[in-house]
Design goal:
This protein has 56 residues and is mainly α. The chain has one domain. The chain is built from two helices and no strands. The protein has helices spanning 3-28, 44-47. The longest helix is centred in the N-terminal third of the chain and has 26 residues, at 3-28. The protein is elongated. 0% of the residues are buried.
Length: 56
């Protein structure tokens, strides 16, 4: 392998690792990954399953 390929691969791996780390930290803080409000989301029960739903 040549150096440019190694450098580009390392940069891509670093970017993917940063995205995964940010996603994990956000999930631990209770933030959703979609960036929209949960009130209109069909998947809100899956995302935030640990919260009690008030409209049972």
């Amino acid at each position: 392998m040549d150096w440019p390929t190694i450098i580009v691969s390392a940069v891509i791996v670093a970017i993917v690792a940063a995205i995964i780390i940010c996603s994990i930290r956000g999930k631990k803080k209770g933030k959703g990954s979609c960036g929209c409000s949960c009130s209109g989301c069909a998947m809100s029960g899956m995302c935030h399953g640990h919260h009690e739903r008030s409209n049972k």
